[in-house]
Design a protein that fits this description.
The complex is a heterodimer of chains A (296) and B (339). With 296 residues, chain A is of the alpha/beta class. Chain A is 30% helix and 27% strand. Chain A has a single domain, classed as Rossmann fold. Chain B is built from 8 helices and 18 strands. Classes of the chains: A alpha/beta (296), B alpha/beta (339).
Chain lengths: 296, 339
């Protein structure tokens, strides 16, 4: 039996390079100002899905929600070996918290049925919430296995997964279809395949084609799209109009959590005692700690 | 179906019938939140043979336990547990539901929040009740969910102004466990459980439990290393120091991500929060997420080669220097003075 997987991936800001200037007044993030990376655990999830396809045959599709810039991420997925990529993008989806995000993703996944397994990274490094996976599963009425470390085996409509728990691990057997979130130790992402990078470097999402036509009045989107589709280089884009979404449940409006206040972290003046990094300093430090009743 | 008194709920997590510490920490915090709201604190217990565990929650201020006790519920399982809790939340509409930021809590809370369309904030480092004006509208007694965000340069206060139920997860150790001298009230309300075919969609076929070898929260002294330690081999010197002075070794998120140390030893917002007598921060820059997990240590020593590292702003004793040179000197000095 072969299996059809979908991997939910996300382009995330490189959280090491963030300053207060990238926060908008409403408390959401101005992502266009940030350097971005492939969310590490989503990359592991894609690798795990590709390994699963290598083992059992089938397909691996990837899905992301994000701005036009997220097209880069989808090309990376194609370079690694994904069969197909889909972008979910609309201004109406901007500013979404995990609940509004999972709602839109679930509606998009409905369009991609049938599938057997949905893979996702455990969490994204920009929020570390680990909520979108379980919330998407709930919206689709699917069971979930979070913190997966290893796919032990698949047999017919069942999959056996080893997962991390507090102080140990569990082996779970789940009925397909289900959603699996993956921890970083589960697999080592393969490098891009040169032949695939050559083949897909010109793959474009609808948003990118639209941009090309804006820059050149001789181009028409429909014509361009047809051309890219015929060359197998079109990355489908789903907007609010393509999905059966209730606008009240999308984006900022559909997000029950709101950012009330953002405070930049200001470090207070340092009042500590400086200890010289030498033998005398260490002796003095031990004395101080004995006075503090920590030692002795 | 709002009941008159606002309710604060804590999901009580148990593994093999043993309650998780974080649940009692959350009851202690929940008690304060319930007082601010002039409301009631309730514990939700799901499992099997849970009566004595349910009674333990009274010691931490629970005024009522909602108890789902059934043979099929012995071990945590996402679908039946989330079904029970989602139905209870729908029915009673508590103002606040708190979960431990554990593997179980982080598996369960989003599922329940999604079902009940509630706002959920992960890994809060503080929770407060306050009146809030948001987009020119006044809201009374909202839960302020406070957490570092975006690489730690920012502390965000999250609110759920229009969500009837506000949910949050909190990591172990963030809140303090404070038992009551005298439990106030003792009421256990059984919650009916009907097994459902969907409960069997995911079955546990093997469990491996390792008793945690480390208990950072109980350690009087913690020697902690950051990314600045450079590699895992250099961490050995921290184990040596910890051994000599009688402490435990811990690390930062960056050190864990780099593979220098195990995740079970991570201190910080997404790890454990500790309050030792002495915390020795070695090669730790001092990002806010890390500071959130150790700033309440009685005394902090910082060793870092960068004199501008933020860790120096919260330490009591600062040493600017190479950790690999300073620590052997510290070990020698300790041995000379105290042995």
């Amino acid at each position: 039996m072969s299996y059809h997987s979908i991997v939910m991936v996300k382009q995330v800001p490189d959280t090491a390079n963030i300053s207060g200037e990238v926060m908008k007044p409403d408390g959401t993030v101005n992502r266009s100002k940030l350097p971005t990376v492939f969310n590490p655990e989503d990359k592991v999830a894609l690798e795990l899905a590709l390994q699963f396809r290598d083992r059992y045959d089938g397909t691996v599709r990837v899905l992301t929600m994000g701005p036009a810039k997220a097209s880069d991420l989808l090309r990376d997925c194609l370079y690694m070996g994904a069969d197909e990529a889909f972008l979910v993008s609309d201004r109406k989806f901007a500013g979404a918290d995990t609940l509004a995000t999972s709602y839109v993703l679930a509606q998009a996944l409905q369009k991609l049925r049938p599938f057997d397994i949905i893979f996702a990274g455990r969490q994204a490094i920009d929020g570390d919430t680990a909520q979108v996976g379980p919330q998407t599963a709930e919206k689709l009425g699917l069971p979930q296995i979070t913190y997966a470390e290893e796919i032990v085996e698949a047999q017919g409509p069942k999959i056996t997964v080893k997962r991390k728990v507090d102080h140990g691990f569990e082996v779970l057997e789940g009925a397909l279809p289900l959603l699996i979130t993956v921890v970083k130790d589960a697999a080592t992402p393969r490098p891009f395949r040169a032949t695939r990078a050559m083949a897909y470097k010109n793959a474009r999402t609808l948003l990118e084609l639209e941009k090309m036509t804006e820059a050149n009045s001789l181009l028409y989107v429909d014509q361009l799209k047809e051309e890219y589709v015929s060359k197998g280089l079109f990355i489908p884009t789903m907007t609010a109009d393509d999905l059966d979404v209730d606008p009240k449940r999308c984006g900022l409006e559909g997000s029950p959590t709101k950012v009330h206040k953002i405070e930049s972290v200001v470090l207070g003046g340092s009042t500590h005692e400086t200890i010289p990094a030498n033998k005398d300093g260490m002796y003095a430090l031990i004395d101080r700690l004995m006075e503090d009743h920590i030692f002795g | 179906m709002n009941e008159k008194q606002p309710q604060v709920w804590v999901f009580i997590e148990q593994r093999d019938g043993k309650p998780a510490d974080v649940s009692f920490e959350l009851l202690s915090k929940g008690r304060k939140l319930a007082e601010s709201l002039h409301g009631e604190l309730k514990a939700v217990v799901i499992g099997h043979d849970m009566h004595s565990l349910a009674e333990e929650t009274f010691r931490y201020g629970a005024q009522e336990v909602l108890l789902a006790d059934h043979g099929d519920l012995r071990h945590y399982n996402t679908l039946p547990y989330s079904r029970i809790l989602s139905r209870l939340v729908d029915e009673h509409q508590p103002r606040i539901v708190l979960f431990g930021g554990t593997f179980i809590g982080r598996d369960l809370a989003p599922r329940v929040a999604s079902h009940t369309l509630s706002g959920l904030t992960a890994d809060c480092t503080d929770l407060q009740i306050s009146d809030v004006t948001y987009v020119r509208k006044d809201y009374s007694q909202l839960l302020l969910q406070i957490r570092p965000a975006f690489g730690g340069n920012i502390i965000a206060t999250i609110i759920c102004p229009d969500s009837p139920v506000q949910m949050a997860t909190v990591r172990e150790g963030v809140m303090e466990k404070i038992p009551l001298a005298q439990p106030v009230e003792e009421r256990i309300t059984p919650v009916p459980f009907e097994p459902d075919p969907t409960d069997e969609l995911v079955r546990i076929i093997a469990r491996h439990h390792e008793e945690s070898k480390v208990n950072l929260k109980a350690a009087p002294i913690i020697v902690s290393g950051g990314y600045g330690m450079g590699n895992w081999q250099n961490f050995q010197v921290l184990y040596e120091l910890a051994h000599v002075i009688g402490g435990e070794v811990a690390g930062t998120r960056a050190a864990v991500d780099a593979g220098f140390i195990d995740q079970a030893r991570q201190v910080g917002q997404t790890g454990v929060t500790v309050r030792p007598k002495l915390y020795i921060a070695c090669g730790i820059s001092g990002a806010i997420q890390h500071r959130a997990g150790m700033r309440d240590a009685n005394k902090i020593i910082a060793i870092n080669s960068d004199p501008d590292a933020p860790i120096f702003s919260i330490c009591h004793y600062g040493i600017v220097g190479d950790v690999m040179e300073v620590i052997p000197m510290l070990i020698d000095a300790y041995k000379h003075k105290l042995k």
